[in-house]
Amino acid sequence: MSDGTHITVEDAADPAARAAVLDGLMAYNAARTPPGTFTGQPLLVVLRDAEGAPVGGVVGRHRAGWLYLELFHIPESYRGQGLGQKILERAEAEARARGLAGVWLETYAFQAPGFYARMGYTTVGVLPGCPPGQACHFLAKRLDGAPLETP
Q: Which residues form the N-acetyltransferase domain (predicted)?
């Protein structure tokens, strides 16, 4: 790299560096997929307490024509009331209304893979040892009821 170009390893988040990577990747993806495929549009289904304060729910976004569930949490005191099922069903209904093909997510072995299986999700991958002594499960569900296609 005689032109002065160099590679660094950095611990601190640099917004300009992140933007350079994200913007470059999004431009590359957009040039190769239908318009709107990588909008990143958010989708939240929020569980609120009696005073209206958020206490849990789903945080997701459009990703490659699917809904990617980034975060899903229900506090212990609200569990066992069917709220997880209702929240996930609302997220799926909204994704369907937005024309998305399905929902995908990742969850750890100690979290909720059984819950998602009961909700019709299929394990499409497992990363053993992530975190150490556990596994990360990748699950997906088509919203049209069709089985997942195998590449």
A: 5-145
